[in-house]
TrEMBL record:
Coiled coil: none annotated. This is 7,8-dihydroneopterin aldolase. Pathway: Cofactor biosynthesis; tetrahydrofolate biosynthesis; 2-amino-4-hydroxy-6-hydroxymethyl-7,8-dihydropteridine diphosphate from 7,8-dihydroneopterin triphosphate: step 3/4. It catalyses: 7,8-dihydroneopterin = 6-hydroxymethyl-7,8-dihydropterin + glycolaldehyde. It comes from Cutibacterium equinum. The gene is folB. InterPro entries: Dihydroneopterin_aldolase, FolB_dom, GTP-CH-I_C/QueF.
């Protein structure tokens, strides 16, 4: 096995996370970046021995568009837990949730939260 990384950048969806009632009702755009540290089989060319990044992307999207939470920290943690459950080949996951329209009272480009979780 080889130490490897898989990165998915910019998984986007309109979702309803946030503390404010308007965020829950109207929703807003979110995006997620995920980096997986994996045990990578670079010799066999066998899909069954790889982490299927299409599955990872779909599971991230499912959490992102699923049950609303107040905090993007909670959202990042839920995404990380979901991704880690996909394959035993995933050793660590880094999840960044971007909330570019966060209601912080000033003009800014983005608010992002990143978490890292390890497989058990």
């Amino acid at each position: 096995m080889t130490d490897g990384q898989i990165t998915l950048t910019g998984i986007r969806a309109h979702a309803h996370h946030g503390v404010l009632a308007s965020e829950r009702e109207l929703g807003q755009p979110f995006s997620v970046d995920v980096t997986l540290d994996v045990d990578m089989d670079t010799d066999s060319d066998d899909l069954t021995k790889a982490v299927n990044y299409a599955t990872v992307a779909q599971q991230v999207l499912n959490v992102l568009t699923g049950e609303p939470v107040n905090l993007i920290e909670t959202l990042a943690g839920r995404i990380a837990d979901t991704v880690l459950a996909i394959s035993q080949r995933i050793r660590h996951v880094h999840v960044t949730v971007h909330k570019p329209h966060a209601p912080v009272g000033i003009a800014l480009d983005d608010v992002a939260v990143t978490c890292r979780k390890d497989a058990e």
